[in-house]
Amino acid sequence: MKWIYIGEFIRKKRESLGLSQSQLCAGICESITLSRFERGKQRLSRDKTVALLERLGLPGEYAYYLTPREIEIENLQREIISCSISKNKSDGLKKLELLKSIITDDDKRIKQFILRSSILLGKPEGDYTFYEKRQILLDAIHLTSPQFSISSIPRGIYTIEEIKVINHLGKIYSENGNIKTAVDIYTQLFHYTPTHFENIGQFGGCFPMVAYNLALGLSKMNCYTESLEIATLARQARIDYGHYQYLAGSTVIMAKCYHFLGDDEKSKIFYHRAYTLYLTLGDERNAQNAKDSAMEYLGEDLTY
What are the CB-based long-range contacts (under 8 Å, 24+) for 261-266? Predict the structure, then answer.
């Protein structure tokens, strides 16, 4: 636990970065509120404090206090994420409605999470269209970054939730076939994350996610040399920081790139590694996809 005066700490960090109060707190709280908080005259909620810290590139662990309501919100968020991963739409949507019922108009960061999660879970009757998803995500990012534009991403300063929203924007463009726009979004994020987050946990969570999606987009554009370089970085970052979500996916991208760059021996090695990782994780669908790709490109049967 870091026993510090959080308001003064935020003020010193903000000033060291050359940020005004209005720049730091835009979309989070009023400048006068931040001023009072920095001087110890007012307390902010944990959620707002975490948002300020993340925009400064600092870990949210500094904001250690929790109210019963904040604990309930945090637990619901974890449960919704679990439902998204397991594709449990019915329970996920119920928990999403419960989360909506306990937040206030001031909980903008939680609203961003709700909007992004609604896309991941989908509507009760089906999925959202590309245009619906894009509008939902733009509405989410504009809650706290009203000047946001996908053509000038590095001009802003972002929380982790905001980066996830922007990353998701790239994903839906890619899914809709607009790979160039997706790669442009990921490239901007790729250059932003290493320079912003000074905490290994935050950097290790954001950077591999962005790097994986950038490598995937580059491979779809047949830019195999660049894709291999980024995928290698993403894979190593996952190993270094203990975030394994995209490890198998990055390994598949590397295998594909090695094939198209003329090194089928390395391609076989990485397809086998990816296949084993997917099986270990119990991800039968992607294990089969890796197996099918190895057979298509190399004539290699990955079955043990």
Answer: 261/224, 261/225, 261/228, 264/298
**Residue 267's CATH number:** 1.25.40
One-letter amino acid at 92 equals G
Using CB atoms within 10 Å of the CB of residue 205, give its burial: 0 to 12 exposed, 13 to 18 middle, 19+ buried. buried
Q: Give domain status of residue 142, yes or no.
A: no
Q: What is the dihedral of CA 65, 69, 70, 71, to 10 degrees?
A: 90
End-to-end Cα, the chain, rounded Å: 48
The answer to whether the predicted template modeling score (pTM) of the entire model surpasses 0.70 is yes
d(CA 245, CA 277): 11
Give the model confidence (pLDDT) of 162-200 as tens digits: 999 999 999 999 999 999 999 999 999 999 988 776 654
Closest alpha carbon to 95 in 123, 114, 108, 110: 114
Tokens of 301: 């049967």
DSSP characters over 168-206: HHHHHHHHTT-HHHHHHHHHHHHHHHHHH--SHHHHHHH
Q: Is position 53 within any domain?
A: yes
